[in-house]
Design a protein that fits this description.
The chain has 267 residues and is α+β, with helices and mostly antiparallel strands. It folds into 2 domains: 119 residues, no CATH class; 111 residues, no CATH class. It is 37% helix and 10% strand. The protein has 9 helices and 6 strands. Strands 1-4 form a two-stranded antiparallel ribbon. It has a two-stranded antiparallel sheet with strand order 2-3.
């Protein structure tokens, strides 16, 4: 019997609103790729506004929780004074949906690349990587994916562990005459095939999350599906939008770095 004592254990009633919401999130994201988009804190934004590089990109050194916008509210202390209360949790939007049409187009692209390049690994990698500089994704943010291509591929190949029929098992043979079958891919090559599909889908997700004009957390895609898991939970009646803080505003534009305004009630 293990003797390790696990601290900070909490029990959640699966039938409670919180339990249902947690179950929905776990089911939605299990074995899925997703992008978590967070906002930088106002203080950190002011500190780096003069830098030429973008410190908010994925994998950037400054991209860490201490610089993220925290869950903050403004409340009356009972004496007519407003107090800012900040919680140690980050506000973020989760992007995980890719349309079935986009998935099929991505699988087709990777399949054709393997066939055309006759399973020559270097040629396949060069083709997949070069496709990420496409003008169709004219977004500086998407360059994060090709910039960290090698590391992402290593992670994805470890991520692809589900058997045939799983959510990200994209390799399939149509019939005995299928050119892909004639390549006779082994297990490792099939894993590589699936990872190439995943990295292209990850590029699509990153593009959606970082496109400009910014797609908001409570918007919909063209096919009518919610843009983020956050909004999806609201529409499924598993979450609500906290709006109390909207009754207050801070004149951040006039504040100097380090000054702290308590805000005031909007009439």
């Amino acid at each position: 019997m293990p003797t390790t004592i696990i601290e900070n254990i909490s029990w959640i009633d699966a039938s409670s609103p919180g339990g249902k919401a947690l179950a929905y999130v776990l089911e939605s994201l299990r074995d899925k790729l997703f992008i978590l988009r967070v906002s930088p804190s106002i203080e950190f934004s002011n500190q780096v506004i003069s830098l030429n590089e973008n410190p908010f990109d994925a994998a950037a050194k400054a991209n860490e929780p201490v610089n993220y916008l925290k869950d903050t509210t403004v409340r009356d202390n009972g004496f007519g004074e407003k107090q800012i209360v900040s919680y140690d949790r980050t506000l973020g939007s989760i992007f995980y949906r890719v349309s079935q049409k986009e998935v099929e187009q991505t699988i087709s692209f990777v399949r054709n690349t393997f066939i055309e390049k006759k399973n020559v690994k270097n040629l396949i990698k060069d083709t997949i990587r070069a496709s990420m500089y496409s003008g169709q994704l004219a977004n500086a943010g998407t360059q994060v994916i090709p910039a960290h291509f090698e590391q992402i591929m290593i992670e994805l190949q470890e991520f692809v562990t589900r058997p045939e029929g799983g959510d990200n098992y994209y390799y399939s043979i149509i019939d005995d005459q299928d050119p892909l079958k004639k390549l006779n891919l082994n297990e490792e090559e099939i894993k590589l095939y699936n990872s190439y599909v995943d990295i292209k889908l990850l590029e699509l997700l990153y593009s959606k999350a970082s496109e400009w004009p910014l797609i908001l957390w409570d918007e919909y895609y063209d096919d009518g599906t919610p843009a983020t898991l956050n909004w999806e939970m609201v529409t499924a009646n598993l979450a609500s939008v906290y709006t109390k803080s909207l009754l207050y505003y801070q004149d951040s534009a006039k504040n100097k770095i380090g000054e702290n305004s308590m805000g005031r009630m909007v009439p």
